[in-house]
Amino acid sequence: MEEMIKKLLLSGKCEYPASGGDEAPFLRSRNYFPVKRRKPWTLVQSALFPLFLVVFSLLLAPPVYAKDFSSFYKVTYEFNQSGEATVTQEISLVNLSPDLYASEYSLSLISGKITNVEAYDKIGPLKTTVDQKGETTIIKLEFNDKVVGKGKILSFILKYKALSLAKKEGNLWQISIPKLANPENIDEFSLSLKVPVEYGKLSVANPTPLENKTADGFYYFSFSKEQVADFGILATFGQYQTFDFKILYQLENSQNVPVLEKIAIPPDTNYQNIYYDSISPLPLDVQADKDQNWLAIYQLSPGEKLQVEVRGQVNIFSQPQKKITASSPKNYLGSSEYWQTNDPKIVSLAKSLKTAANIYKYVSSNLSYDYQGIKSGDVQRTGALAALANPTKSTCSQFTDLFIALCRAAGIPSREVVGFAQTDNPQLNEISQKIDLLHTWPEYFDSDKNTWIAVDPTFGNTTGGLDYFNKFDMNHFAFVIHGESDSLPYPPGSSVNDKSKKIFVSFAEERPKTQTPNFSLEQISPPLIYSLKQNKVVLQLRNNFGGALYQEKIFNLNSDSSPKDWSFERILPYSLFKIELTIKPEEKMKDYLKSLAFSYNEIESKKNEIHYNIEVQSLLLRLVFVSVIIFSLIISGLIIAVKRSKKINSQKAKQYSASQN
User: Fold this and answer.
1) Which of 17, 423, 436, 615 has the highest Cβ tally under 10 A?
2) Same domain, 68 and 205
3) Of the candidates 11, 652, 463, 289, which has an alpha carbon nearest to the alpha carbon of residue 3?
4) pLDDT digits (tens, 9 = 90+) for 287-335
5) Cα dihedral angle (471, 474, 478, 483), rounded to 10 degrees?
6) Cβ(617)–Cβ(585) under 8 Å?
7) Which domain holds residue 384?
8) Is 252 helix (H, G, I), strand (E, B) or coil?
9) Residue 433: inside a domain, yes or no?
10) What is the DSSP letter of 248?
11) Whether residues 451 and 347 fall in one domain
């Protein structure tokens, strides 16, 4: 009998009328309350009722569990283009007792606006009542049919609209369904999602659907009871998430001499692409450190105060998109102040856990997030050992530090990422509106994939069991990476003395770039060259584009110089870079200005050309001039010598004549 009901429900067939309706978003939480019973009414109490148990869903009555009824659920969420979901529950209750019947059914839905509730059994529409208590909606159904007898089946359909299960944020649609409550009271359960293809391609599905197909303009996904019971469902549609950001930096030079200040600005990583609309004022240069952080460099005069404003957009992906190489992974195994890799407790635990997956499970399940500490502002980074000793007082830094220390002790390179993470947690969102609430998460190096993999044991702990090890989301925005150092460079918003809000991040849709890639010539050395000579020239260029350029080429358009092109693996935004060339200008027997021409991206593109006039001094002209001078000097010398000789001879002749007389 149970197998028959299972086949009936899983087939999607139903003999009852079903009303039409638009699709709608997912429910954030739901709890299934089974039918309930009270004492039987006997023939003495009423001659109108046979001698069997009458089951009611009274709040004070004890629940009927699986020993009384077997339950089978087929739940379908069908979404429309505006994000509404039509939820259809096809339910069958198989009576396991000869003297019970179900008269009422209750369903509790936590969060989400519920509308258009309707239900049917084989006789027709069921009487429904909807009671809203805060965030909880309680739906009660009264059955038309009293199905009595062991093995008898009561089947019915419940439909409603849910208005807050899917939401569009930035470039993405996100659907979330928390884990199934009381799964032990449900014998069979299947869940299906029907999502318009207009949402975009599936980017993240957590857990992985049992079935994934496309038909008639919809994506179809199916999930089992075990999948929904363990984690719930989180599905994201779209290629990447986009955020607008504005970050303020306060710089001050308290010394009596000029100093260079470096600030960490959000970099490209394997998971994100950065585009800057503006950095005001522009830095002298932007450089990358060994961890591939981007450092903007400013020179401050004695006593100078400077505010730097950085604006831009970031596109964030759920999987690594490129391999931005940092130092060798072997450099990410050492011990430090917060990653006590050599401590015996850490070493012993790491030996037992061995893998990054086991370490993630241990950290996410054994530490507890300290919401009170966050609210009170009493949050300090204490390191891995303190997290082990006091697991109930953990924030993201304790989750991250412990994961990194255990990974490194197990021989797995690991590092810390500090940045911003978008969350639906109302407690954290309220705090982040007032202060800069930074988030940290770890990355470990996967030697098989030869890349860094981001995970988040904090979110694994605070999201009710969602898997942030095998599948990452697109809401983690990296500001800095700590690997060779466990705390440097300092991220924006980390100032202890100034608590004013300096970080502003919001969902956005990707907009066209306000700039196109372009370079300018900042300096040339030497400032002049000579004809007929192989001159070595160094040109310093600046990337004026707000994004990093990869696999970029500069083409030499000058026929009398070499090399003919230069290749760059990466050029950072607003950074300085150099090219060197050897040039032999033609001889014109005069000094003249020579136009140097270079192109980038496309050798034929005139709009991508850089021109610079450099002074060419005629070497031959100077040789001729010098030769004339030398010849003139020689002639002058000869004339002087001849005159001197004549004068001497004249004097000698006079002397001789005088001696003869």
Assistant:
1) 436
2) yes
3) 11
4) 999 999 999 999 999 999 999 999 999 999 998 987 677 668 889 999 9
5) 10
6) no
7) 329-481
8) strand
9) yes
10) E
11) yes
d(CA 302, CA 256): 5
Contact present, 554 and 566 (Cβ < 8 Å): yes
Rg, the chain, Cα only: 39
Residues 6+ apart with CB under 8 A from 547: 273, 274, 275, 276, 513, 573
Any domain includes 267: no
- Tell me the pTM: 0.79
Determine, yes or no, domain membership for 448: yes
Say how far apart CA 471 and CA 606 lie, in whole Å: 45
Q: In whole angstroms, give the CA distance from residue 89 to residue 91.
A: 6
- Give the chain's domain count: 4
Query: Does residue 447 sit in the same domain as residue 589?
Result: no
Same domain, 608 and 632: no
Same domain, 633 and 568: no
> What is the dihedral angle through the alpha carbons of 645, 647, 649, 650, rounded to the nearest 10 degrees?
160
Residue 183: CB partners within 8 Å, gap ≥ 6? 189, 225, 228, 229
Flag whether 247 is in a domain: no
49 and 75 part of one domain: yes
| 83 lies in the same domain as 176 | yes
| pLDDT tens digits for range 435-491 | 678 999 999 999 998 899 999 999 999 887 778 999 899 999 999 999 999 999 999
Cα separation, 270 vs 83, whole angstroms: 31
Tokens for 285, please give them: 């240069």
Q: Check whether residue 610 and residue 638 sit in a common domain.
A: no
Query: What are the structure tokens assigned to 57, written together?
Result: 């869903």
